[in-house]
């Protein structure tokens, strides 16, 4: 059987390739790369550094917080009666003493009028008694009994005035009548609510401080809160808890801020910054921060003898220009390029960033 010409061509090509590898193996061509020695690097590794001076900067403690009313009070009735008037709408700012609910007077005014009439009668009787005692027709004991009756009548008038005044349920402080609980026609027993008052000036900004930062805060320190609404308010710390929350290990913080127009609401989320003193700090590129073998965050820098050293740092604040850190001293040559490829104590070649 004759072999086709196409098959002969393929067999010929395969034979040529096989012959090439046989000859290459016999004359050592395949060992040229294996026997080649690697080129050793010349000199220490090169890094780029940035000279970073020491700067005095205010320390800030940053935390999440929220606005909160200074006081929230449920205003309750002191006596029983039917609500006859509700002059204030809920959500309205009111002054201290404004009437929130007015109960029906019923017979209380008549009771007061009767007590006043009795008081006038007792006053006249006491005047006559004193005149008769002066002339010797009444004893000192009778005069004292008349004075006691007069005192009882005066107490009855005062009691009736208080009962009549309790018909008006008033705002205990200047603030916002936030919620109404009793409408006209509602019968209120003693202790039942008319509504809820909240005090928004001054306003509180509250949050929880980590235990690592609590010792740096003190009463009176200035603070700034940027609200989720975009508003910014300034205030001062009025309270830092001494006892940590057993669950979160944080300390409660309260800041008072002026809110004269009462336009900042209670319950808004806020980014809070509290000034906690001043001290040395360095501005370093965020990319220069590395971790050492122990997992500590820090920077690598070049010493005077061009050897690498590591310093742990604490980040105070991140800005578009870099990270403000503490833990360094003096002006340092911070490694900005190559910091991940060198080790402490290694000598390097230094180039400016």
UniProtKB/TrEMBL annotation:
Keywords carried by this UniProt record: Membrane, Transmembrane, Transmembrane helix
Domain CusB-like beta-barrel: 207-276
TM region positions: 7-27
GO CC entries: efflux pump complex
This protein's record includes keyword Transmembrane helix: yes
Pfam families noted in UniProt: Beta-barrel_RND_2
GO MF term (any one): efflux transmembrane transporter activity
InterPro entries assigned to the protein according to its UniProt record, in alphabetical order: Beta-barrel_RND_2, RND_pump_MFP
Signal peptide positions (record): none
Family: Belongs to the membrane fusion protein (MFP) (TC 8.A.1) family.
PANTHER family: BLR2860 PROTEIN, MULTIDRUG RESISTANCE PROTEIN MDTA
Name this polypeptide is given: Efflux transporter periplasmic adaptor subunit
Organism field: Phenylobacterium hankyongense
Lineage, opening ranks: Bacteria, Pseudomonadati, Pseudomonadota, Alphaproteobacteria, Caulobacterales
């Amino acid at each position: 059987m004759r072999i086709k010409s196409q098959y002969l061509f393929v067999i010929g090509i395969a034979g040529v390739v096989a012959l090439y590898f046989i000859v290459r193996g016999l004359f050592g061509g395949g060992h040229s790369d294996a026997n080649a020695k690697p080129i050793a690097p010349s000199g220490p590794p090169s890094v780029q550094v940035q000279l970073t001076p020491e700067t005095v900067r205010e320390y800030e403690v940053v935390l999440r917080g929220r606005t909160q009313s200074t006081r929230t009070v449920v205003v309750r009735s002191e006596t029983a009666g039917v609500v006859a008037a509700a002059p204030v709408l809920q959500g309205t700012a009111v002054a201290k003493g404004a009437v929130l609910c007015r109960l029906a007077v019923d017979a209380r005014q008549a009771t007061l009028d009767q007590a006043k009439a009795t008081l006038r009668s007792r006053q006249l009787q006491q005047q006559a008694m004193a005149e008769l005692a002066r002339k010797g027709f009444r004893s000192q004991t009778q005069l004292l009994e008349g004075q006691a009756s007069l005192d009882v009548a005066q107490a009855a008038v005062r009691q009736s005035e208080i009962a009549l005044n309790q018909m008006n349920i008033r705002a205990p402080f200047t603030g916002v009548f936030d919620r109404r609980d009793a409408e006209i026609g509602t019968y209120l027993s003693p202790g039942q609510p008319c509504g809820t008052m909240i005090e928004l000036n001054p306003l509180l900004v509250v949050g929880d401080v980590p235990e690592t930062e609590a010792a740096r805060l003190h009463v009176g320190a200035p603070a700034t809160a940027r609200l989720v609404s975009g508003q910014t308010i300034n205030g001062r710390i009025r309270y830092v808890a001494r006892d940590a929350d057993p669950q979160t290990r944080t300390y409660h913080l309260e800041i008072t801020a002026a809110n004269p127009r009462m336009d900042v609401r209670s319950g808004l989320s806020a980014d809070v910054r509290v000034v906690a003193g001043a001290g040395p700090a360095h501005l370093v590129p965020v990319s220069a921060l590395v971790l050492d073998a122990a997992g500590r965050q820090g920077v690598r820098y070049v010493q005077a003898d061009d050897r690498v050293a590591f310093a742990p740092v604490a980040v105070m604040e991140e800005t578009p220009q870099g990270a403000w850190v503490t833990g360094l001293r003096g002006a340092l040559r911070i490694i900005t390029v190559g910091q991940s490829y060198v080790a402490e104590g290694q000598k390097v070649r230094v180039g400016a960033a």
